[in-house]
Specification:
Helix content: 25-40%
Oligomer: single chain
Number of domains: 2
CATH topology of the largest domain: Aminopeptidase
Number of helices: 8
Strand content: 25-35%
Shape: elongated
CATH superfamily of the largest domain: Zn-dependent exopeptidases
C-alpha cells in the first residue's frame, strides 16, 4: 500500500488493517503540489510553474479568462509556497479537489490561446526542486471550452524547434589538450585527440544548423579549467558543452554519460570522475583556488538556481538523444551530478562523456569517424530540441 510523502502508513506484524480509519484520499493520492509561481518571459509571455512531488500526469482546460491544470491522482495542499510576479496574465490561482484529481485553476486577466506543445515542459528534479510543470502562454483567441489532453511526457518530444528565433551561441570545450592528454586507451588513443575531433565536427554541424559555435581550443593546447569556463562567459554563450571520453578500472565498463554541476556528487563514481577531471589543473595549479572563490562570489543564489535548472533540462534532453541514436549508455543513470570545475560558470552547461577509452571495443568506436559523426548528430539534435528560454 502506498501513500503520499506527507503520510506514514504503519501496519503491525499482526496484520491490523487501519486503512478504513483514514480518509480514502490519503491512500489514493500519490502526488501533491509543493509550490507555485509565476513569472514574465520575453515577448510578453506569462510563465506558470507548478512544482509537484511526483512526475505530473496532467491535462489542460481552457475557459473564459481561466486556465485549469488538472493533475491526475493528486491532492491539494493550500499551505504551499506561492510566488506571484507582477505584470503577468495571472490574477490568482486556486486548488480544487475533484475526487482523486486536483484542479489548479488560474484566473486570468484575459483569455489565452491554446498553449503550443513546445511551450509546455516537465523538468526533472534538481537540487532543492522537485518535478516542475512549466507553462508559457500569451493572451489570444480563446479556444473552445474543452479539455486539451497533454500527456505528462510532453518534455520528451523529439520534434526539433521549427525555427531558431535568434542565433544561439554554443561554446564547445574539447577536454584536456597539450601537456594533459586525458585518459589513454589500451591501444594508445588519447582522449585529447578524440574529443578535439568530435568538437570540430560539432562546431561545423551547429554552424550549418544556424547556431554560432566557438571552440575553447582549436589545436593541441593546454587550458586551465577556469580559462575554459571564462571563454563561455566572454562569448556570452547560451550553452557550454565540455566533451570528454571516460576511463574505468574495469575494462568491461563502457557507454556514455552526461554530467551537470553540483556541489555534491550524485554517486561515488560521479565524485571520482570530478576528482579526475578537476585534477587537470594540478598540472599548473596556481590560480585554481582563486577561480573557485571568485566564481562562488560572482554567482548569486538565484542565478545559480536558474543555471542549474537549465543545465539539468539540457542534460536530460542530451541523454534522450544519445539513447534514441542507439549509442550505448553507461550502466546506471544517464545523467549524473558532480562538482566539476569546468562547469562553474554563469552559463548553463553539461559535460558529456562520449564513451570509455578503457574499453577495447569502445576505444575503436571512438576513434572511428562514423561513430564520431553519430555522437555529433545526437548532440546537434539535443541542442535543436533544447528550449533556451527555460
Amino acid at each position: 500500500m502506498e501513500i503520499s510523502r506527507r503520510g506514514i502508513l504503519q501496519i503491525s506484524a499482526l496484520g491490523v488493517v487501519i486503512a478504513g480509519l483514514l480518509p480514502r484520499m490519503a491512500f489514493a493520492a500519490r502526488n501533491s503540489v509543493r509550490s507555485m509561481r509565476t513569472g514574465v518571459q520575453p515577448n510578453g509571455k506569462t510563465r506558470l510553474v507548478i512544482e509537484t512531488t511526483a512526475r505530473p500526469s496532467y491535462s489542460l482546460i481552457y475557459g473564459e479568462n481561466t486556465l485549469t491544470v488538472r493533475l491526475s491522482n493528486a491532492a491539494a495542499d493550500n499551505a504551499i509556497e506561492k510566488k506571484w510576479a507582477s505584470g503577468t496574465l495571472v490574477k490568482s490561482v486556486s486548488q480544487v479537489q475533484d475526487g482523486d484529481a486536483l484542479n489548479v485553476v488560474a484566473t486570468l486577466n484575459r483569455s489565452i490561446a491554446e498553449i503550443p506543445k513546445n511551450q509546455i515542459m516537465v523538468l526533472e528534479p534538481n537540487g532543492d526542486n522537485e518535478y516542475r510543470l512549466v507553462l508559457d502562454f500569451v493572451a489570444g483567441t480563446k479556444t473552445a471550452v474543452a479539455s486539451t489532453k497533454t500527456e505528462s511526457d510532453t518534455s520528451d518530444t523529439d520534434t526539433p524547434k521549427k525555427q531558431i528565433a535568434k542565433k544561439h551561441i554554443i561554446v564547445i570545450d574539447a577536454g584536456h589538450g597539450g601537456k594533459d592528454p586525458g585518459c589513454i586507451g589500451k591501444g594508445g588513443t588519447k582522449e585529447k585527440t578524440v574529443v578535439l575531433s568530435i568538437a570540430k565536427k560539432l562546431q561545423t554541424q551547429l554552424q550549418s544548423a544556424g547556431f554560432i559555435a566557438y571552440l575553447t581550443r582549436t589545436g593541441d593546447t593546454y587550458l586551465k579549467l577556469n580559462e575554459r569556463a571564462s571563454i563561455g562567459e566572454q562569448r556570452r554563450a547560451d550553452l557550454f558543452l565540455s566533451i570528454h571520453a571516460n576511463a574505468n578500472p574495469s575494462r568491461s565498463m563502457k557507454g556514455f554519460s552526461v554530467y551537470t554541476l553540483s556541489e555534491k556528487a550524485s554517486d561515488e563514481e560521479a565524485q571520482k570522475l570530478a576528482d579526475a577531471e578537476n585534477a587537470a589543473d594540478k598540472i599548473d595549479v596556481s590560480g585554481f583556488e582563486q577561480f573557485s572563490k571568485d566564481i562562488r562570489i560572482a554567482l548569486s543564489s538565484l542565478q545559480q538556481h536558474a543555471v542549474a535548472e537549465m543545465s539539468q533540462e539540457y542534460a536530460n534532453g542530451c541523454a534522450r538523444a544519445f539513447n534514441r541514436a542507439s549509442i550505448e549508455q553507461q550502466p546506471g543513470p544517464a545523467v549524473r551530478h558532480a562538482p566539476l570545475a569546468v562547469l562553474r560558470s554563469t552559463v548553463p552547461g553539461a559535460l558529456i562523456e562520449c564513451g570509455h577509452l578503457s574499453n577495447k571495443s569502445e576505444e575503436k568506436l571512438l576513434k572511428s569517424s562514423a561513430h564520431q559523426d553519430k555522437i555529433v548528430s545526437a548532440i546537434v539534435r539535443s541542442i535543436k530540441n533544447y528550449d533556451f528560454e527555460v
